[in-house]
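Researcher: Please translate sequence to structure tokens.
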Amino acid sequence: MKITIIDGQGGRIGKTVIEQIKKKHSELELYAIGTNSIATSAMLKAGADNGATGENAAIVNAADSDVIVGPIGIVFANALLGEITPAIATAVSASGAFKILIPVNRCNHFVAGCSEAPVSEYIRIAVEKLESML
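Model: Translation complete:
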């Protein structure tokens, strides 16, 4: 199973996701895709097995992933302060991978039905969903 974590900015969400997954499932091979080198570096330091940076890396890895995990902005063009290009959003959205999206009510979108919880709680729920799929 190819599990890809996509994040941008400082990579804090991706880093936390990887730490939580690796804590319980060190055997899983995780792919960290950052929209910038800082995000990629943070996810690799958290324990990702593979890492790459940029638009092409996101497009290539989204195409053959079984699961993609990341903030909800990875499916919105120009989200994460412009780091999610239209090509990245399209590649993630069009991927046949199961997507586990972490709601973050910023960048001009609001996810109706989500309670106001800390991002750490949403990450915990996302990791639980991934574990239920293993």
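Researcher: Any highlights?
Model: The beta strands are 3-7, 30-34, 50-53, 67-71, 98-102.
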